[in-house]
Design a protein that fits this description.
348 residues; disordered N terminus; 2 domains; alpha+beta; five-stranded antiparallel sheet; six-stranded mixed sheet; binds zinc ion; Aminopeptidase; Immunoglobulin-like
């Protein structure tokens, strides 16, 4: 179902010539909210809950810095009241954060996080939203703006705007999103980048990097609500974006591997080990976002690379030292499920 709607949206955008790489933009009615809009920023973790810890840094400290930058930037806009669930290093339960937003009449709760993966090889940013009703529609509409803003302003790799339901199918998997929804508040988790992967280290460790992330978040919110700022000299009141429809039934996450993963050999230079492939990959429920390759029939794998081609494209690689000449790739979807391609045997 998700696929069909997405296809229609993309087809419509393509017909209008509005298609950007990875994103589609369709003129639509903006989010209509009361004035002023009440935006609740939630710096993830805090106190005894440190979150992820890498390179001598705690996620709870980084989220507070991103959130503070987001707060300061967003406060420069007119027609918006900005509140934060915490401004210090304190413990808060997810229910307390959601209740705080609900008590303040928040239109949206943005939960600020940084990521890490068990395999330490994922990179990029992603947005998690509710699978339900208008919470889904608002989450998806905002999430796509946010991801595009982070990609443009900061350069992080987009891993998608996604839903995830609890294994029992009785609510949203992520506690802050579920707790907010149960109190009538739309929430999104912004996972800005991965703390445990070298691709992303500059996006949170460089001087001024966290402020840049927070500003991008604020700009995304301003675009979503069509805000303007005379201080900043910007006016997003005419800003147009994809308005997702409400979810009539909950939007379950993609739980299957990509369906198509095929490679064809275009060229192989024995002397340099350089290989050119034509690769095809697709997934009916979500997008392909990464590929990796193996030169020894799948015994060992390269790191992940961003999957740029829209459905199919050229891959250039240099065979690793441990290559046996049996070449294959894996294509990974937004939910980190992967499929291995056919194997190609190079003439050694
Ligand atoms: Zn976190």
């Amino acid at each position: 179902m998700k696929k069909n709607i997405r296809r229609k949206v993309i087809a419509f955008a393509a017909a209008l010539g509005l298609l950007l790489p990875g994103f589609s933009a369709v003129p639509a009615v903006k989010a209509q909210a009361k004035t002023p809009v009440v935006v609740c920023i939630d710096p993830g973790h805090g106190g005894t809950n440190g979150g992820a810890a890498y390179n001598g840094l705690w996620e709870k400290d980084l989220t507070l810095q991103i959130a503070t930058a987001m707060y300061q930037e967003l406060s420069l806009y007119e027609g918006v009241t900005v509140i934060m669930t915490r401004t210090a290093d304190v413990d808060l339960t997810l229910a307390q954060r959601a209740q705080f937003a609900a008590d303040a009449g928040a239109d949206f709760l943005y939960s600020i996080h940084l990521n890490a993966s068990p395999s330490h090889n994922l990179f990029g940013s992603e947005v998690w939203v509710s699978a339900y009703d208008s919470y889904y529609a608002k989450g998806m509409s905002f999430g796509n703006i946010a991801l595009q803003q982070l990609t443009t302003d900061v350069g992080v790799y987009p891993r998608g705007v996604k839903t995830k339901m609890s294994s029992k199918g009785t609510g949203d998997y992520y506690g802050i999103i579920n707790n907010a929804r149960l109190r009538g508040v739309t929430a999104a988790i912004i996972e800005h980048c991965h703390m445990d992967e070298a691709h992303d280290s500059g996006f949170y460790m460089k001087e001024g990097a966290l402020e840049k992330l927070g500003k991008a978040d604020a700009t995304a919110v301003a675009k979503y609500y069509g805000l303007k700022s005379s201080v900043l000299g910007v006016d997003y009141s005419g800003y147009q974006y994809v308005q997702y429809p409400n979810a009539k039934t909950p939007r379950m996450q993609d739980m299957t591997d990509p369906e198509v993963a095929e490679i064809e050999l275009l060229s192989y230079d024995k002397s340099t080990g350089k290989v050119q492939l034509y690769a095809k990959a697709s997934d009916a429920q979500s997008s392909i976002i990464y590929y990796s390759y193996s030169g020894n029939g799948g015994a060992t794998w390269s790191g992940l690379f961003g999957w740029r081609p829209a459905g199919a494209g050229y891959i250039e690689l240099t065979l690793p030292e441990d290559a046996t000449g049996e070449l294959c790739i894996r294509v990974h979807n937004e939910y980190d499920r992967f499929t291995e391609s056919n194997h190609i045997f190079l003439q050694q």
